[in-house]
Amino acid sequence: MAQTIQGIRGMNDVLPQESSRWQFFEQVTREWLAAYGYSQIRMPIVESTHLFIRGVGEHTDIVEKEMYAFEDSLNGEKLTLRPEGTAGCVRACIEHGLLYNQTQRLWYTGPMFRHERPQKGRYRQFHQMGIEAFGFSTPDVDAEVIVMLADLWPRLGLSGMSLELNSLGDIEERAAHRAKLIQYLEGYIDILDEDSKRRLYTNPLRVLDTKNPDLQEMAENAPQLIDFLGEASKTHFETVKALLDDAGIAYTLNPRLVRGLDYYNRTVFEWTTTQLGAQSTVAAGGRYDGLVEQLGGKPCPAVGFAIGIERLMLLLEINEVAIPAQLPDAYVVHQGEAAARNAFTVARQLRAAGLNVIYHGGSGSFKSQFKKADQSGARFAVVIGEGEVASQTVNLKTLIGEQQGKQEIVPQDQLAQVIRSI
Ligand code: HAM
To answer: Where is the signal peptide (predicted)?
Structure first.
């Protein structure tokens, strides 16, 4: 026997017993996205590496160490498997002129790739559903996208999600804070670990994100960005909070919430859970008013978020959320050559009438076929033997519910109608 080939570490198959959960999520979110007026956009999985260096930020963990970047072996182009969707979405909008004098509310879904250390809730290929709202500078839209997620959780049958909120201010405010922060961190240069030293001048905010217990006190007492916000940023943030209060949505202000991507300004947020251990963030996003211009478009304010679908799948599983099953209406059982041919036709007729039907492939004893019919979860077994072929009828047997075991003879041309009526 040939040696088997394994899947790639951190990249998962979604098996049939799990896929109904994914479909449930897709169905619920489609209705939810429509309720908020979002249209779908589909971008390629591969983009130019420059897009992410410029978009996500040269000194982020994603760009520094997690990108699946490679050269196209045919023409040497530098390409990357997208680590996230925002940069590609902005690229597509600029390229196709979607942002001229108009607003856009867009959503996308699909696989993203980050070379991280795999663990529960963290994978190298994972899936996001993201939304991006373009052309809105006012805080009502920040609040709307946050409220939108609050509205999603009960639709999915989930509760107990927490919202963390921060404002990163605007570029000048960040620059002033950054200068003060570097000065502060330089005072601790002797105790900073290698990672923090490396980030001190490239991405000092990320130094505060350190998990190193020896650095916690230093991080907690560092100058906070929130104290550097100017009037406009402050008012913007106050309005977001007021709208959340009006909507009855609780939140925790987290001045250390800085996000791992460079494009954000003003509002940033994360929806978290205590049920997933270390990978606690289920959805995250914020405002990014500078990115469109940074990627070559005319200035255009924007705000958005992405949901980590694998993490949501884990939550649905842990909370035993009941997933509506797509069970077949009928399983067609047959015996003998003529019956098999007739059953093949009957199955097609039932499907044409809108029913979900499994035709028993091949042959087998009635007993083994009925066993398969039971396992399929079908409501009915449609039984065709020689006698039924001759009389153009079927024996319709109820497999589940109160009428379980009931059998009746039904003419083939009335079968779909009878099944529907029960
Ligand atoms: P992000 O925080 O990098 O933001 O990712 C969003 C979500 O994707 C995370 O909260 C998490 O649920 C999920 N996620 C991230 N990495 C992994 C992984 N390795 N394995 C499993 N799930 C993961 C963004 O990507 C931004 N583009 C969001 C955004 C859209 N901001 C504005 N618009």
So the answer is: none
